[in-house]
Specification:
The chain has about 800 residues and is mainly β. The chain is extended and about 110 Å long. About 35% of the residues are buried.
Length: about 800
């Protein structure tokens, strides 16, 4: 008994000493000295050091009683007395899957704020010469030599070991005593259930992955044959042909009725949240739906109560205002006049403008590319579909549309080119890129250089350029050693040697060339310089306004000067195709062919020619002259506006009226403001209110509105006190000014906004859809008219 008491005393003493030592290690805090070195203090912010500050970097003590420190650029481990148990001789100490190693690799050092307070008992990984090994801390004995590219934190006594082979890293499993459980053979390895199981994967030909599972002894549970594999709440979830099924952990028998779902999350043994065609529901152990598949998200509060988010409600109407369909979708957008696309829980599909679902949400994305074609991606890859859902291109890694109607297709390291008729113009080959520039010419990159191919995949110009930038037949703007040149494909020679800073092709007859910060106009094919240019902008398809040396001019696509850059300003180009030119206090008119209609004359101001007459100011009064400068209407008006539909607004004694081209006063000057006539009517202001008159001066829309805007078909958008309404072409207020916003769709229906929400009205005021919707979409090409209403989250109790 006495010996037993002594033994207990000694044991208690040893445990107390261990506890003191453990507590001492646990209460030491990393502290930085004024000299920038690290040591350890008994309390945070304490000036006294238990372990003197001599380390470049230092971690807090781990639960095993050791701390990582850096000295002389190398890492080691110290005990609670500051004594090195592993000398500072390592590139790094830790594990390949910890944040601190990743940070170390990125920045070459461990950030001051990084913390790691854990290890694995008495073992830790180390890095020497870029390779990983495993060391026993108390003895310093190397358990695994430094010959691996990665060693992950141990799970259930097993280490995941990775070694690079070619472009891949192969993974296997070792015990802590370096016994091989699985040889290096997997491209992917992840522990689940704290190392009880391991999910493994291999990359297949074409880049696809297959997964399986093993236990901690290396026994195969699932062969590598599945698109996806998870372990969740005591169940294996396996994915075959993009569908998930649940299996019991021990028996591997199907659960939840053995049904396959697009997505599956386990709540407990009797409940699972499931997804089908983008919609979520809840099923029981037999696979029966307890909550229908109609929600965009479901979260379990517990096994009987769920928080659900309904999909937004979309109501579809035709252009007569008749309801076509009501759907629950995330979003919709038009593809063309005959086809729409929609999204549902991260997937996409197609539907008709009337709201009929044409495909399930089977695509990862849908991107319209014009002419009824769409770029899509699904489980087979990326490809192009037409509106009949036929594949224009084969499934590939990626598809790019650089020119409408042509598709550059990349698959397994090779490129090909297809057109919109499914024709393969350039077969798959060892090209680095393909870019269409024209329906007959395509840029192809091979061995780092660009060349030019035709539709029969023949080399027109062999690869020789660093880059191809633009093509206007027969010229190419190319780049060689950071300089641009102009290459003639027809002549197979340089028109401009690659020495320019920049080139801009205007047409096959002219281009702009920049050298030494100066732009010059170059005429083709002669190659002659046509003058210097500083700035330019395109006025229309044929004409360019340019500025040089503080003066402006105009040239055409042929490189011909319509107006030499000699004048202070080109004021504009009128609808009649006539330029108004200003220079040194004088004004003139030039036709778009370069003819001087009116030489420069000292007018006070000159407007734009319209219907053969030009507003002119002499002194403080306005009148009109002809395009040849002959006075047609005397300069006696306070202000004028250009002629439109044979009438011009003129200001007399502060009021506006209208005259004809013979200066006959057709409408008396009685208006505070007036706009020009369009379609036989003019918007005018009388006594602070706006109305509309016709050419006889008769009132079409009464003067009672704060503002009036023209709408198609002769309709008018009117407003009072910031509320809008609609007036028809006969001047009848068809929709009272009771709405925050009104959008006219046609003569039968309008979209209105009231109290922040949208609705649909018939022109007689009958409410087709109450203003309860958050947004609407109207696409005139497809006829799509839809209203979206966000529905709030709900809590559903299955016991109700």
């Amino acid at each position: 008994m006495r010996h037993l008491l002594v033994f207990r005393f000694l044991l208690t003493g040893c445990l107390s000493l261990l506890a003191i030592s453990w507590g001492h290690a646990q209460t030491l805090f990393v502290q930085r000295s004024a000299q920038g070195l690290y040591g350890y203090s008994p309390t945070p912010g304490h000036d006294g050091f238990v372990i003197p500050p001599r380390f470049q970097k230092a971690f807090p003590f781990m639960r095993s009683g050791y701390a990582k420190v850096m000295e002389a650029g190398r890492w080691g481990l110290i005990d609670s007395k500051g004594k090195f148990v592993l000398p500072p001789q390592y590139d790094y100490i830790g594990w390949a899957d910890d944040y601190y190693w990743i940070d170390y690799r990125r920045h070459g050092n461990v950030a001051d704020g990084s913390l790691q307070q854990d290890s694995y008992n008495q073992l830790i990984g180390f890095v020497q010469n870029g390779l990983w090994g495993l060391v026993h801390i108390p003895t310093g004995k190397v358990v695994l030599p430094a010959q691996y590219d990665a060693i992950r934190y141990p799970q259930a006594g097993l280490l995941a070991i990775g070694k690079r082979q070619g472009k891949d890293t192969l993974w296997g499993l070792h015990t802590l005593k370096n016994k091989v459980v699985l040889p290096l053979q997997y491209h992917f390895m992840q522990s689940v259930e704290r190392g009880k199981y391991w999910i493994v994967g291999k990359r297949q030909a074409g880049g696809k992955w297959l997964f399986g599972a093993i236990d901690f002894k290396g026994k195969v549970i699932w062969d590598i044959a599945f698109q996806g594999l998870r372990f969740e709440q005591g169940f294996w979830l396996v994915r075959r042909q993009s569908r998930w099924q649940a299996y019991q952990e021990q028996t591997l028998t199907p659960h939840f009725g053995g049904r396959a779902w697009d997505a599956l999350h386990i709540v407990d043994a009797a409940h699972a949240i499931v997804q089908e065609s983008g919609r979520w529901g809840v099923c029981d152990a037999q696979g029966r739906l307890l909550l229908p598949l109609q929600y965009r998200a479901i979260y379990a509060i517990h096994d009987k109560r769920y928080r659900v988010a309904p999909f937004p409600e979309w109501q579809f109407y035709d252009e007569r205002g008749e309801q076509q369909a009501v759907l629950r979708l995330a979003d919709i957008f038009p593809v063309d006049a005959q086809l729409l696309a929609y999204s549902l829980d991260g997937r996409s599909g197609f539907l008709s403008p009337g709201g009929k679902l044409l495909t399930p949400p089977q695509y990862e994305y849908i991107q319209p590319v014009g002419d009824g074609l769409c770029l899509v991606r699904d489980s087979s890859g990326c490809y192009v579909l037409n509106r009949a859902f036929e594949r224009i291109t084969p499934p590939a890694d990626s598809v790019r549309t650089d020119l409408p109607g042509f598709f550059s297709v990349y698959k397994e390291g090779q490129w090909a080119l297809y057109d919109a008729n499914k024709k393969q113009l350039i077969p798959f080959g060892a090209y680095e890129d393909i870019r269409p520039f024209h329906f007959e010419r395509f840029a192809v990159k091979q061995k780092g250089q660009w060349g030019i191919m035709d539709r029969l995949s023949r080399w027109v110009v062999a690869p020789r350029f660093d880059s191809l930038l633009a093509y206007v037949p027969p010229y190419w703007i190319v780049q060689v050693e950071q300089k641009q040149g102009l290459y003639s494909e027809a002549a197979q020679q340089w028109m401009v040697e690659p020495a320019a800073d920049s080139l801009l092709l205007l047409s096959r007859y002219a281009c702009l060339i920049k050298q030494n910060h100066d732009w010059q106009l170059l005429r083709l094919p002669q190659g002659e310089l046509g003058g210097k240019v500083h700035e330019w902008k395109q006025l229309n398809q044929d004409l360019y306004l340019v500025r040089y040396g503080g003066h402006e001019g105009v040239f055409n696509r042929l490189g011909q000067w319509i107006i030499e850059p000699l004048y202070d300003r080109i004021l504009g180009l009128s609808q009649d195709g006539i330029f108004t030119v200003y220079h040194e206090g004088k004004y003139g008119l030039v036709s778009n062919t370069g003819e001087w209609l009116l030489p420069l004359r000292p007018f006070g101001a000159l407007g734009l020619a319209q219907q053969g007459l030009v507003p002119v100011r002499e002194g403080s009064s306005w009148g009109f002259v002809s395009t040849r400068g002959n006075k047609r209407i005397s300069t006696r008006y306070g202000d004028v506006k250009p002629f439109s539909e044979g009438l011009a607004a003129v200001q007399i004694a502060g009021k506006w009226g209208f005259i004809d081209t013979w200066e006959t006063l057709r409408i008396q000057p009685r208006y505070a403001e007036a706009e020009s006539f369009q379609a036989g009517t003019a918007i005018v202001k009388y006594q602070d209110k706006w109305g509309v008159i016709n050419k006889e001066g008769k009132t079409v829309v009464p003067f009672e509105y704060d503002s009036i805007e023209r709408l198609p078909g002769g309709w008018w958008l009117v407003s009072k006190a910031n509320q809008q309404g609609i007036v028809d072409p006969q001047g009848i207020e068809r929709l009272h000014t009771d709405y925050e916003q009104v959008v006219l769709l046609n003569e039968q229906i309008v979209v209105v906004k009231q109290q922040g929400h949208w609705g649909l009205l018939r022109m007689d005021g009958f409410m087709l859809a109450a203003p309860v919707f958050d947004s609407y979409k109207h696409d005139t090409a497809s006829g799509l008219l839809s209203f979206k209403r966000e529905l709030p989250w709900q809590t559903i109790d299955l016991t109700d």
